[in-house]
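COMPLEX REQUEST
Ligand: pyridoxal-5'-phosphate
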Amino acid sequence: MSMDFISLEDIRRARKRIEGKVVETPTVPSPSLSRLAGVPVYLKLEHRQTTGSFKLRGASNAIASLSADEKSRGVTAASTGNHGRGLAHAAKLEGMRAVICMSKLVPENKLSEIRNLGAEVRIIGNSQDDAQEEVDRLVAEDGLIMLPPFDHPAIVAGQGTVGLEIMEAVPDAATVLVPLSGGGLAAGIAAAVKALNPDVRVIGISMARGAAMKASLDAGRPVLVEELPTLADSLGGGVGLDNQLTFAMCRDLLDEVILLSEDEIAAGIRHAYEQEREIIEGGGAVGIAALLAGRIRTDGPVVALLSGRNIDMGLHRSIICGDWAASGEQAA
Ligand SMILES: *Cc1c(COP(=O)(O)O)cnc(C)c1O
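STATUS: Structure written out below.
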């Protein structure tokens, strides 16, 4: 079965394909988190990637893998925002049409960024699954190429390039903390990291409100979960009942999955800003949040991946000022 998984070679090829199209982001030590954890803690600053998240890596690799005929037809995807933005950016570089379909839960700041990149945006329904129906229609009726946010070999291989950079920056890493939604990022990183050193633990982290991969892993198969508003909006959405790749990879490669409350995620965003001087969206702050909550047990160096920074700045201000805390579990 693992023959069908993305390999280290696939990920190395992806790295060559996207070289010069994506930023090789820094990995820096965090003195405050190292003190707290009692082991060296490093932060992989992937929120500084062009478009503000790692999603550009998978999107660039997938677009670079298309034939000339496919490129002429244009691409489409359902997206909670960051994949849409990465895809829109990568498509624009190639002069290609991109149509991004989203649910009403996607924040306004993410919509306008995608429109500004010249992509068409369609808002459909209340869930990723509703948005996906419009994508399926565009593929069937208009001949567009679907490049989904996670469950696609070229997307997983592209996200996996983060894992190569992490192991180069911290060769003695013992534990890698990865924000987890549909699992493209975690699957790609785990494939790269474990091929280089099978002893490294890779931990997926999601919000407790609507953690589809965790529910699916517990059930032993992809299951539907209700999508709820959360500070970690970029971790929302299902894994797809017909999941081909990322469910099995996460099942076989992840050592643990941790779920966090909204207050814990807010504390992660606050710590990122006040101690690390970084603006991080909820989904990107879950690694820091898990460390702060005392949920990570390790006796060696930890790398926490900061996966994105595309948070609504009004929301960010209210979290930093402490106004948000008053609303407790009512996210956003
Ligand atoms: C998409 C996203 C994730 C999760 O990636 P998956 O491949 O869906 O698991 C994590 N953080 C941010 C900022 C994202 O945009």
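REMARKS: The mean pLDDT is 94. The CA atoms of residues 151 and 246 lie 6 Å apart.
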